[in-house]
Structure formats: structure tokens, C-alpha cells
């Protein structure tokens, strides 16, 4: 048996320990009460989850739309009539039109409308639900593609520009913002006075007419455009929507929708850069008809300059155009203008040749060369800068270098009394030189001054009446 003294000792120790434990518990108790006042109860957590829609819908939209209960790999109403898919388009901009690549780039909003009863859900308020791109991969959507497209992409800044709206009765709106570069089969036979018809074609890739029917949702009003759409070289005359069918030998008939737009080119840019310089070069080539036939360097250099300038204009226009195998309207104008410039050079070649033949015949008859060695008043001015009177000048074939210097000094630096009769003669120089040039010019130059402008003006009248 345990002695009474030990029993009393252990009892005292136990009482002491229990009192310390109770004291410690009283100290911690207020802290526990403060913490319990912050932490919500289970009833409060349940109530907060019901009020916070961001916690409720992500957990239940699959059940609400019955996504897990159906196979969305097949179209709505599979095995029955084709599902109708309405389309409408809001054109945001036409970014560029390239003649070299024969394509155009367009940015627009493409909206699809169809009904999928598998997505119907009960709703007391009859309000639709809107989702982003994350739901697209879980349901069925039309597989629309763009015929003759080179490249296209869905805008993804800041996220993918995709919107999906589901109504309680199962009607679905699927909207996406797309930029597409597609072919435009252009005809440049009237360039730059042309009008181009381009179209963007929409079609289902997998579902033919037995499974899917594409149509414009609101008829002709299904195609809307921004009022501020403008292009640098084109004026948009018309935007229209149409529909049709496309046949493929392996898969059958498909519904196809067309976005048609008519572009008329602005002509003012090409008038300033192409037509007006060409007209100036042709008119400049006519100046050679008024230059004396013996001024060989002047007339030859003028003809070569105009020919080279026309070649530069032609090469500049060809560099900005596709290599087509037919003749364009601008080619007709530039090549005809180049022909006029080239004919002006040939005209002087003919004049020079006939003049040389005439002088040779005259030399055989008279034994004298009438030409540069028989200098008249107008030609003498080109040599020494002073007027020569045919009655007082000596024979030009016999003067020497020393006598020429003396003559220049005597004529050009004489006193006022000796120059006075010479000034009188210079007053009538203008009329005499004009008469001399008219008499000495070949008959071909005389006719060319009238014939070339008349023919070129007639060509312009026919050209602009045909192409404008």
C-alpha cells in the first residue's frame, strides 16, 4: 500500500499542474475568440458562393448547356434537313489593293446565326449568355472558309476577338473579327481608266448543301460598311451581297456567298505623273521643226533627249504593273506618244538627207556649194554674234583667222558714229531672220509644223472618247 504522505504529495502536484493549465487556457481564450470572429462559418460560405456568380457559372455552365450530354462533333439535326446558317458582315476597312499581286486585303466582322437545340437552357428572365473563345472548342460551329484566299487570321489583341452568345431557345450568335487577303481577278486592258470588280467568297468546307445551307441573314442589308472607308487610288462605287452554288466533282454542290465591291480608279494621279509629261515631251519634239535645218547638234540632241525621256516614262509605268500579255490603255497612249517623238527624229534625218542630195546636185551644175560655205545673214550671227550685210561682207570662203579677229573688233568695239548704221540694220534683223529661216527650211519642216499637231490632237480626241 502507498503511504499517506506520498499520496498527499502527488495530490498537491496534480492540483498545481491543473491550475497552471487553466491559467494558460484563460490567456489564450481571447485570441481564439478574435480569430473565430474573422473566419466565416459554413453557412456563410454557402451563402457567399450563391451570391458570387463567378463561382457558380464556371462550375455549372457545362451542365446548364448540356455540353457533356451531347456529341457536338456532328451538326445540329444530324440526319434530317440541312441546318440553316445566316451570315452578316460588317466591313471595317479595305487595307490595300495590289495590282502587282492582283489581290486585296480586307478586315471585317463575320457573324454566324444558327439554332442548336442541344444548347437550349431554362431561364426565367429569358436572357442570353455570352462567352468568349474558350467555349468554341467544346461546341459545334460552322466551318466557313474563304475561297481564293491567300492568307487570313483572327485578331488576338488583347485576346482572341471571338464572341459566342447563346439564347435560352438554342439560337446562337458567333462573331469573329478577321483580316483576309484574297485574289481579285483584275482586268488591266483599260488601266488607268479602269473599274475593277472584286469579290470575297464564303463557303462551308465540309458540309455540302445536304447538311448546311448558307444564306444572308438580312438579305441585301446583311452587308454593312464603315462610312469612313477610303482608298488612295480607288473610289468605292458599290458594295453588294449575292449568293450562289459551287460544284466539286468529288463532294457535290455547296452554298456560296459573295461580298462584291466595285472600285473605280482615280485618274488625276496618272494625269500628273504619266499623261502630262508624255504630252510635254511630244510638244518639245516639235520644237525641232522650227530650228534651222543646218543646226545639226541642236536638232539631234533635242530628238535624243525626248526619246530617252519617253523611254523612262514607259519603264516607270511598267515597273508598277503586273506582266500581263495584253495591251493596256496607258501603253497605247505612251507608245503612240513615243512614236510621235521618234517620227520627229526621223523627220530631221529625212530633211538632212534631202538637203545634202540637193546641194550635191547644185554643186555639179554650178561648181559651188550652197551651204555652210555660203553663209547668209542668219547663219553669220551664229558664228561671230554680229549682223552681216550681204552687200558689204566679203567672200566667206577666203577670209583668214587674222582678218576674222580684225572684223570682230571693228564691228563689235567701234565708236557710236560707226555703229549707228549697224544698229539700224539690227532693228530689222528679227523680220529678216524669220524670212530667211522660212526660206531656207525644207518643205518637210513646213508641213510637219502643221501635220504633227493636228494628228496628235486627233489621236487624243479618239483616245479619251473611247476609254473615258
Question: Descriptors for this entry?
Answer:
single chain; 468 residues; alpha+beta; Acetylcholine Binding Protein, Chain: A; Methane Monooxygenase Hydroxylase, Chain G, domain 1; eight-stranded mixed β-sheet; four-stranded antiparallel β-sheet
Assembly form of the protein: single chain
CATH topology term of the domain at 83-265: Acetylcholine Binding Protein, Chain: A
N-end to C-end Cα span: 134 Å
Number of helical stretches of at least 4 residues? 11
User: Could you spell the SSE succession in H and E letters?
Assistant: HHHEEEEEEEEEEEEHHHHHHHH
Categorize the overall geometry. Answer: elongated
The CATH architecture category of the domain at 83-265 equals Distorted Sandwich
Look at the structure and give the mean pLDDT: 79
Uncertain ranges: 27-38, 52-59, 371-405
> Share of helix among residues?
40-55%
Number of strands: 12
